[in-house]
Amino acid sequence: ESDTASEISFQFNKHKKTPSIGSHSSDMASVSSVSGSVLSVYSGDFGSVDAQGTVEFALDYDEKNREFQVHVSQCKDLAVVDEKKGRSDPYVKTYLLPDKARMGKRKTSVKKRTVNPIYNEVLRYKIEKMVLLIQKLNLSVWHNDPLGRNSFLGEIEIDLASWDWSNRKLNWYPLKPRSLSAVNGVDHRGVMSLSIKYVPPGSLGPKNPPSGEVHIWVKDVKDLLQLRPSGVDSFVKCYVLPDTSKKSYQKTRVIKRDTNPVFNHTIVYDGFHTEDLKDACVELTVWDHEKLTNHFLGGIRLGLGTGLSYGISVDWMDSTQEEVAFWQEMMLAANEWIEGLLPLRSL
User: Fold this and answer.
1) How confident is the model at residue 331 (pLDDT cuts 50, 70, 90)?
2) Fewer Cβ neighbours under 10 Å: the N or C end of the chain?
3) In 74-148, alpha helices (H)
4) The C2 domain covers which part of the protein (predicted)?
5) Same structural domain for residues 108 and 135?
6) Is residue 294 within 8 Å of 30, Cβ to Cβ?
7) CA distances from 224 to 35, 128, 173, 187, 319 (A)
């Protein structure tokens, strides 16, 4: 039914008190580091102070060097974070949305003990103009906390497709509270078409199969982020969490220069007991392939989304309502392919 297929065993001792996730493969370590970068745009303390004040900056695109430049000048009348000491230690951070993973963040230096910081710094992105025009600039101001719990002071978001590029002057903009779309991580990353099936042990005959099997048929992905003018070179990684060993890891072939890649790849995981379906989670992530490093594009997690795995609290058991419903339908319809069309997200 598919171009390629692979079969591996689900390995996890459910009687252990803690999941054996210490031995990450190199690929899983890459997942962790990039996911951390992605999530950092949403992490931090958003509720301790109200957004107030203004920020002065200018935008420019250097055609010769193919460089997007954010000239951060200064801020005025920022919120006070430490009221007892009457101080804030602010800095400015920028992201290009929705492509946070690839472009990463840029930030200014920290100015201590001031609500009127002056920066006069330029934050630079090497990026093609046509790619830039499908992005949004998210510029936010933060108080730097020595213990790492930085406080959000306000933000502004600009649609670069409608920006007046003849305007290179410094202008003042009011800082706004964190938008709901940013807090919830709502951004369009594409849609994955797939089918899944659970085959219970012994359901096809005596001892056939000897253990339960989860079949995952990755069909295609539509509307991926276009990172280069030529498109994107994408592939899909798969793990069945909490097993992050190399035995759990599978991936499709790379489809080059295509934002609508067709993978048609089936993966079969055996070693399942029916009760494992309540505690396991199938994580499918889409990546852009490059020689030096792979860039995270988006993913889905199929499970019950309870926050628990074998009684242990885990952050990856966070399936959306759509993902949970898809997984539940598979659990209720043994030996039947369940088709789905699920949006990719930041994980």
Assistant:
1) very high
2) N
3) 100-103, 129-132
4) 51-173, 188-317
5) yes
6) yes
7) 17, 17, 32, 12, 21
Q: What are phi and psi of 132, to 5 degrees?
A: -60, -35
Instruction: Tell me which DSSP letter residue 204 carries.
Output: T
Q: For residue 41, is pLDDT > 70? A: no
- In angstroms, the CA 244 to CA 24 distance is 6
> 134: closest CA among 233, 31, 232?
232
β-bridge pairing 54-62 and 281-288: unpaired
Tell me how far apart the alpha carbons of residues 211 and 201 are, in angstroms, rounded to a whole number.
Answer: 4
Token pair in block for residue 25: 């493969």
Among 180, 199, 221, the domain boundary falls at 180
Residue 25 CA from chain centroid, whole number: 19
- Average pLDDT along the chain: 81
- Same structural domain for residues 151 and 252? no
The structure tokens 């600039």 sit at 137
Residue 144 tokens read as 């730097």
228 plus 306 within the same structural domain: yes
Domain, as residue range, for 325: 189-341
Q: Are residues 138 and 83 in the same domain?
A: yes
Q: How many domains does the chain have?
A: 2
106/284 Cα distance (integer angstroms): 28
Write out pLDDT tens, residues 208-231: 888 899 999 999 998 887 776 677
Q: Could you tell me if residue 7 is inside a domain?
A: no
Q: Each residue of 249-279: pLDDT tens digit?
A: 899 999 998 889 999 999 999 888 889 999 9
- The residue with tokens 């689900």 is 10
Reference 74, options 123, 115, 118; nearest CA is 118
- Domain with 322 in it: what CATH number? 2.60.40.150
Pairing of the two strands 90-97 and 212-222: unpaired
Same domain assignment for residues 234 and 141: no
pLDDT digits (tens, 9 = 90+) for 89-122: 999 999 887 655 455 679 999 999 999 999 999 9
For 157, the enclosing helix (H) or strand (E) is strand 151-159
Token digits of residue 111 = 């100015």
Residue 114: how many CB atoms within 10 A of its CB?
A: 13
